[in-house]
Amino acid sequence: MSEATAPKVFIAGKPVEGVHEVHEHVSPISSYVKVFGALLVLTALTYGVSYMDLGNASLPVAMIVAFAKASLVCMYFMHLKYDDRYNVFVFISTILFVAIFFTFTIFDLMQRDAVNPEQDTFFRANFGEAFGFQPPEPPEGAEAGGHGHE
Amino acid sequence: MSAIATAEHPEHLAHHFDTLEQQAAAAKLGMWLFLATEILMFSGLFLGYFIIRMFYPEMVLEAHEYLSKTAGGVNTVVLITSSFTMALAVRAAQVGDQKNLIRNLIFTIGFAGVFMVVKYFEYSAKFEHGMLPGKFYHAWDHGYYIEGLPHIFFGLYFCMTGLHGIHVLVGIGVLTWILLRAKKGEFGPSYYTPVENVGLYWHLVDLVWIFLFPLLYLVR
Fold first, then answer.
1. At B185, which CATH number?
2. Count of domains in chain B?
3. ipTM metric
4. Smallest Cβ distance to B145: which of A40, A59, A138?
5. Which of A132, B22, B55, B146 yields a CA-CA distance of 20 to 30 A from A35?
6. Do residue B211 and residue A91 have CB atoms under 8 angstroms apart?
7. Is the Cβ of B144 closer than 8 Å to some Cβ of chain A?
């Protein structure tokens, strides 16, 4: 079998040699330990920040930390950093479609009043009474919400 | 006449693939497509959360105080640790370290079990206090008067954590299957696709929790 007749084997569009081995990237244990440490620190950070009164900034801060953690898990634990580009493409397009789903639905709900002013009233009025939700009045001196029991 | 036919045929190579690497890449692409559907499924619940938060911010604010931050925090650490041991298990399979593969799989299953035990205590506390979804909500019988629409919030809470909990249980199932196969010595540097794909699934379960925890338990 000469060089000229041997067909090349392609993976992800690239010719590969040594076709009977799997050549995936093996990360050193130390990189996993570092990522694990970073995830724990970020968890402590979200937990700590939740006790501070950040007002409206609270949601964006929590989301930024969550996205940072998610990126670490995806890139290092799920090997996307070293992986086939096709898998990265699948993942990124999923996130893109989730973003479209969120944006358009929220946009619709926010703008609905402009078209039909009664829409909002209808939505709210029926929401509370659904399932026959009729909470009794709290008795005198009873603790009225807002204070966690744990 | 291909170069492959003349070479020795590897044990795990299915006939319709040219190489082990091609086979592994195909399996992994399939797994990522499955994970995409999982992300899209959970995204519906997350969108529900954001809509309810947008229209009834005070409801989420009042009711979320009744979730145990400690239990949620402990479970976050447990799940991240299990993701770490899973990543180490995949690495052990890649380098052919049989002992560490089995040990890390056992750790991962153990942490998943701890997660479910904490979840069990959290859920039983909610059941006891009548903090249940929709028409089952009766926390006022137990002396809790949560303002707003807590029955909607707890509906959301049980749907989101419940679907995630089912994923953890399925994870325990598939991890046990992988553990049994690993004990038979089926995995090594040339064939570890099942370990890797179950690992990807397990990391996704962790990813969902990374977003669930701050949104339900922490954010004001």
1. 1.20.120.80
2. 1
3. 0.86
4. A138
5. B22
6. no
7. yes
